[in-house]
Amino acid sequence: MRFLDRLFIISHRLKTKQNILLGIIMVFLFVVLMIAITASIEFSRIKNRYMSSLFTGQSLIAYGDSNNSFKIDEIDHVLTSVSDKFRNPISADFEEFSNNSDLGLEVAVELYPYLYPDEIEISDGIKDIKPGEMVCPKEFYPYSLYRTEDGGNYSEAVIKSQIIDGESLIGQEYYYESDKEWDSSLKDATLKIVGTYDNKAVNLPMNACFINRDTFDEIKSDISAMVGYIDENGEEKFEYQYYNAQFIIVDDVKNRDYVIDELANIGFTAESTYTTDSSQILILIVVPLFIFCITAIIVLTVIYNFIRKKITYYHQFIGVLKSLGYSNKEIIRSLSLENIVICFVSYIITLIIYSLVFYTISTDLFAEFYYSSFSINIPYLSIIILFVVLMVYIVFITKYRINRLFKNDISVLLKED
Length: 417
Prior knowledge:
10 helices, 2 domains, alpha+beta, about 425 residues
């Protein structure tokens, strides 16, 4: 009977304006908390993955005597050492994918050289890519991230309806015509898709395909740049510059410094192929964490003050319960349950709002991360831990404030303010 009484009392008190107001405030604060903690955790995870992935953290560019480049392969933990020519991909605008110009999509397939065995895990157990063959992502998006809008403006977007199942393209051939304006020795190539790979595993964009190393060498020029200048006779001249560095991939980011030291011993100066923008890291990680901490303090303060005022306001009601024979534990359990229900309902509403906000942000505002295979996920464990911590905090504060009230006599509790 007491349990039913307690449920009736709780359901009645939950309708008060104070409880409804608290619920609304909690929903707003919980949404801010969840978004902040998601941003901080996920961007930190993405940064760590980026800094340790194959084409960033594991890659080096080395300058030195090219006659000694063969010595690089003898260094422990070096997976491959090739000309800097193989560092960046070739962009291909295959006509076969150009039927979506009405959507503002620009065909742009990035062709990477397959440099060493097991560089990527190819479907059907394929261990090597032969000349004229090509391997593309399982979820293939053969377009640029930048979409042309009305008026000639550009926006970042991934149109999910245009993502292609890579397996469905196996056996299809695509023609690549080299730009021979600078280098007439370049060859054209017909590339046949023979398999797929998981681009997310190596953090490559959704338009990144791999081709045979020799094929790549034939369709990309050894010329890195063409520099124009005016000679002493006032005539415009051009000078070609060639790739003169080594592109190196190490087996693990933790071995990068060791390889750099060993390269120095054979006369090479090496550095990472990427740089980090500390200000961007600050914005994406530290700022959300700061917002989370400030909001958490506000949440804890609001809950504490609400419970304190509520118990003070309910002192006469608590006195009635004690006079009816309810024990201190039963009264604490009743009021704790009421506060937990308010918090729980607020949390459920928050999860619904948060999910809508999350999927809007992750697919639209952060299209670049999605395109580059750095997915933003919901940190379920952190959200559950946050909920449990709040529940424990509510029970603790409720018990603490009621125990302080119990120090008064029943006559004092029954006394009207």
